[in-house]
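Render this sequence as a predicted structure.
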Amino acid sequence: MRVSIVDIFNDIVEKKYSDVAVEHNEESIRYGELRKKAYSVANCLIQETNVSINNIIAVFLPNEINVIVSDIGILYSGNAFMNLDIKTPTERIQNILEIIKPKVVITNSKYLKIFENMDIAVIDIEAISVNDKDDIITTKREILIDTDPMCIINTSGSTGTPKGVVLNHRSFWDFMNWAGETFSFDGSEVIGSLSPVVFDIFVFELCMLMIKGSKIVLLDSSKAIFPASLLNELNNKEVNFIFWVPSIMVNIANLDLIRRIPLPKLKLVWFAGEVFPTKQFLYWYDNIPNAQFVNLYGPIEITLDCTYHVIEERPKEDTPLPIGKACRNSDILILNENDEICGFNEEGELCVRGTSLAMGYYNNPEKTLNAFVQNPLNNSYPELIYRTGDIVNKDENDIIHFKGRRDTLIKHMGYRIELGEIEHMVVNEFKIVNYCCALYDYQNKKIVLYYENENEITPQEFRKKLSTIFPNYMLPNSFYRMDLLPRNTNGKIDRLKLKNLLYGENAK
């Protein structure tokens, strides 16, 4: 079956031609105008830069309407987009471009100088002339099939050099079909978009616009610093659906903002990307009683997400939120160290098979082969699984529970310890700690806790509290307060930066 997201988008445009598709601050664009501008981008790529099909086109723009215009235009041209973060240091941008080698970069006049000394074609989106003819575009598009690439999303870089994850039209189509059926998406959604353009959540929002006809409200990330203004904008724009990483939601909970600024229009709340501490989640759950809350899980190498958990009953504060059951067209294998299926409540590595799998890492076949491997349970024919490196278990009700990263499982004083368990208890037991990250200092054999908080807490206070929960061998040895823990572009705590900080401090 041939599936192209832009073919579906054309049908949406005909139905919602005069409706607003995207809003950003005081600007907006209607579906008809959005397609017209996207056509112009596509024709520019085809006629002026002579790109063929299935090339990678980079986009280096702020989180604004022109990003969506560019991404859709690239898809119309028969190519795949790769959004870049304008806040990323130039050296990292060069690194990504050297790995991926895109044919063209789309940017604006403000950022043209960044690419002056790079061997790459550059298009200034502000200088593109109007050309909304679709004859050449249609010819290009008709060659494509559903397994052709749709986009590249670069890994956050928390483990070093970024990898470009290639995702195709089919995998997004499958996920959107499942999501649409499961949550009854009908185009009435007004999405409060806070995700960086480099993150897969942004691509999901783009798909909601193109496949379902949902409206996107682009929220300025700067407002996350002043979350009260963020909540006010959700109300002013009548946002009824958000898909956020938990970090900003935790901040809102800690500031007790929703009781002061209620969100009556908000009906659906998705969150993913990191663990949402149960204490702060309950604040949202209790103060927006008419909303449905869903915890989703999935690394970038899985198209969007592969498990989900609809929270139908109020969880206990001391219980981590489950990641739930597999989404359709994804199968979850929990494998032990011998690559055997784990029994109930037995911990093992979460592995995924199905159409949700990425195509691999662009221009990096070696790392692709290491991550996407033959299913050890199938010796009859080639079948790939993705090994996530995440440790989980499944309870008697077939509900999956996240336990931590394989690389956060340590051996200390002869005991096997999951650092994520320490993090969870610190955040959920201490009412004054916003976030924390536990690391292991292998040089000095110590557990180190970095925490985010306005005020310093003495090591004695930490240990007194934790000693009621954990044995001595699980108690952190050192504690470091930070105003803000470092974050990756996707909002996750940057463990690599903290590790570098740790070993830099120890080296002094």
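Summary. The first helix runs from residue 5 to 15. The first strand starts at residue 20 and ends at 24.
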